[in-house]
Amino acid sequence: MLEERALDVGVHDRSGFDCGVPELNDYVTRFAEQHRRKGISTPFVLVNTDAPREILGYYCLSAAQVDATELRENTRSKLPRYPVPCFRLGRLAVHQRLQGQGIGKLLLACAVDRCLKAGSDVAAYALIVDAKDENARQFYEHYGFTPFASAPMTLYLGLGE
User: From CA 145, how far away is CA 139, in angstroms rounded?
Assistant: First the structure.
């Protein structure tokens, strides 16, 4: 059974993770735990409960804010004219051998669910993501994310509408 967990460097084998993108591999190996300790972002991993050391995929969340003028007009008109609180999906990566099997969709759903649950205690208008390339942008748009008005590679998904 697949299970999402907070990254635990004592349990999860970070060095065995390979998504095919050196920067994303390097992040989970070298920086994810540092960022967690410093309060920069919180990494979550997807594992199989039968083999909990192997990281199948991961994502990171952090707090953010966005100037409402960056959002689309139909959204902007409903918001105050000062920065609104959001969550940021900092990274999302799937192990190379599992790509194309719905793991990215599952990780995204876990991230949105986590934001919705946190939103009951801490207000946040949207989940923001910076797509690293055109394929990533299309992935996020497929799941309902909307590009920023002036930065089409930065997208948002409203959480409370």
Answer: 9
